[in-house]
From TrEMBL:
EC number: 4.6.1.12
Protein's name according to its UniProt entry: 2-C-methyl-D-erythritol 2,4-cyclodiphosphate synthase
Site (Transition state stabilizer): 35, 134
NCBIfam families reported for this sequence: ispF (TIGR00151)
Taxonomic lineage: Bacteria, Pseudomonadati, Aquificota, Aquificia, Desulfurobacteriales
Obligatory cofactor(s): a divalent metal cation
Superkingdom of source: Bacteria
Coiled-coil regions, chain positions: none
Keywords linked to the UniProt accession: Isoprene biosynthesis, Lyase, Metal-binding
Biological process according to GO: isopentenyl diphosphate biosynthetic process, methylerythritol 4-phosphate pathway; terpenoid biosynthetic process
Enzyme class: lyase
């Protein structure tokens, strides 16, 4: 059996925080506001995985009301989500995502993001696609108020016989 999940996340820019996307710290004058490290890409992927196996969203599993997740590394949270996927008897087939940001330019960091994600999800580098786009200066991302990310994952039941 194959299943598909989608995820979406958004965080606004703030001063005084590092910018982490896909587990990569990106040199930029602002970071993203969030209870954890606010890694918008990893949050979207986590939600997509949880959605694929009907386990809710990351807010259910890692609530911002719980101090133990304050400043949490989203690669660690993604690893916890991946363990939930495996416990349900599924594996990752592929991940496709897009980061929506006017600035900073993300192209130089995409392969490192893909590597981080593929390692945590125990899948090959070729099974992880990360793209970046702008909104042509439209909307909150175009006004450089924050960053959004969308993700789609396909998973397969491990003992499905396919």
């Amino acid at each position: 059996m194959f299943r598909v999940g989608i995820g979406f996340d958004v965080h606004r820019f703030v001063e005084g925080r590092p910018l982490k996307i896909g587990g990569v710290e990106i040199p930029f004058e602002k970071g993203l506001l969030g209870h954890s490290d606010a890694d918008v890409l990893l949050h979207a992927i986590s939600d997509a995985i949880l959605g694929a196996v009907a386990l809710g969203d990351i807010g259910k599993h890692f609530p911002d009301s719980d101090e133990k997740y304050k400043g949490a590394n989203s690669l660690v949270l993604l690893g916890a989500v991946y363990r939930l996927l495996k416990e349900k008897g599924f594996k990752i087939i592929n991940v496709d995502c897009v980061v929506i940001a006017q600035k900073p330019k993300l192209a130089p960091y995409i392969d490192e993001m893909r590597k981080n994600i593929s390692v945590v999800l125990e899948t090959s580098f070729e099974n992880v696609s990360v793209k970046a786009t702008t909104t042509e200066r439209l909307g909150f991302t175009g006004r450089e108020e924050g960053i959004a990310a969308q993700a789609v994952v396909m998973v397969q039941e491990v003992n499905s016989g396919i």
